[in-house]
Write the structure tokens for this entry.
Amino acid sequence: MRHGRRQTDDGRRTTADGGRQPAEVAPPQMRHAARIGQVFKQFALFAVAGSVLAACTQKPDAAAVPPVVTTEFDGDAALRYVAAQVAFGPRVPGTDAHRKAGDWIVEQMKQRGATVVEQTWTHTTRSGRTLPLRNILARFNPQAAERVLYLTHWDTRPTADAEMDPADQLTPIDGANDGASGVGLFVALADALQKTPSAFGVDLLFVDGEDYGEFGPPLVDVLLGSTYFASHLPEPGYRPVFGVLFDMIGDADLRIAVEDHSAQRAPDVVERVWAKAEAMGRGDVFVRRSAGPITDDHIPLLDVGLKVINVIDLDYGPGRSYHHTLQDTMDKLSAASLKIVGDVALALLR
């Protein structure tokens, strides 16, 4: 494809074969004739050989999987907040739906006690169009020196250019997963932080203009909000303890692998997140395999020295057939997936 975040292809959903135990062999009866005894002896030898082969094919005993640990994060509420974003229509920069959805995010964050900072600017596209853009930074415990940065993008792609039918390719997408899922996650996180504040200062950053143009290479009119934030940090010396980008995390068939840029440039943050997920019994969702290198909003922040990783499931639909298409709709998402990611995200703040 000429568009979209990029990822290497690999297998998925494989299950280890535990092997089979050999059947027991009854001892030969002493009254049998010598010939029968020899046959029994041969059968016993085959059984022993089979037992050895089975043992060789079995994996060593694995560590017990921890029981699932949950938090007060509300996955059902998160899904409702996703639906509220989608109800505005495609949130394409410069449209009325985009403006209303941004106003809604600001109001939701203020209602939950956050100090809200809006970064507004205009971007001129390669084609000469002027886009009004807005980053929304919701700060909880704003006086805290030790801070955690969570970010997600809230805009949607202006075209369904991955559709097979050319007649559909110029239609804007709903962006239920790619755009709204992170917003729903963050509003539900804000619910939890309002009730039980974190010892950390928490910055929830909603970035704009992630998905407007082409991912190339070269990049054209994409990652606009994260690039702007990277050059307009909220205060001098801003260095969060760690940061996580959450993108496309509502898929009902969720499996999150380790993104390569994150592993190479912020391995300690990857370990912090994946170890927490495993300790909470979610190692089946946060899997320790490579997702390949993905160009996304964490890259501009890594480039200015912020330790930010990407939590993303780009494998969305059969053959990624829902990504950047008209199939990115609410019916592809689940409260259970949002709950899993929300539990881990909230536990990292405790």
Notes: The domain at 75-347 is CATH 3.40.630.10 (Aminopeptidase).
